[in-house]
Amino acid sequence: MAEAGTLTRADIAEHINRQMGLSRADAGAMIESILGHVIDALASGENVKISGFGTFILRDKAQRIGRNPKTGVEVPITPRRVLTFRASQGLRHKVK
C-alpha cells in the first residue's frame, strides 16, 4: 500500500498483477473499467449492489431548515441527492 490506511487503484492493480498474472496496464484498465461502470450507473440514478461487499444507494433529500451553529440563524438547506454505502453482512463481520 502506498499510504498506511489507504488502498489506492494502483494497489488493487498491483494485487491483480501478482495474483492473476495480468500486466499492470491490463489490471489498471480493468479497475478503471469496473469503476467507470459503477460511476455511470450512479450518475444515471441507479443503485449499485456488489454481492458480498455492499450497496451504493442514492437518496434524494428534501429541502429543510438548518441552523448556523455560530449565530443560530435559520437557513434553508436546498434539496439534494446524496450517495450512501451500506456494507454487506459479510463485510461487516470481517471489519469487526
Word description of this protein:
By secondary structure, the protein is of the alpha+beta class. Helix content is 41%, strand content 28%. It has 3 helices and 5 strands. The strands form 2 sheets. The protein has a 3-stranded antiparallel beta sheet with strand order 1-2-5. Strand 1 and strand 2 form a beta hairpin. The radius of gyration is 19 Å and the shape is elongated. The relative contact order is 0.12. The mean pLDDT is 93.
The profile of the biggest β sheet is: 3 strands, antiparallel
Could you say which overall geometry the principal axes of the C-alpha atoms support?
elongated
- Helix-strand topology string: HHEEEEEH
Describe the strand arrangement of the main beta sheet, using strand numbers: 1-2-5
Beta-strand content estimate: 25-35%
> Which bin fits the share of residues in helices?
40-55%
Tally of alpha and pi helices:
3
Number of strands: 5
N/C terminus separation: 21 Å
Structural class: alpha+beta
| Estimated radius of gyration | 19 Å
Mean pLDDT: 93
**Uncertain segments:** none
Task: Detail the topology: elements first, then pairings.
Layout: H1 9-20, H2 24-43, E1 48-50, E2 54-61, E3 64-67, E4 74-77, E5 80-87, H3 89-95
Antiparallel strand pairs: 1-2, 2-5, 3-4
Helix pairs in contact: 1-2
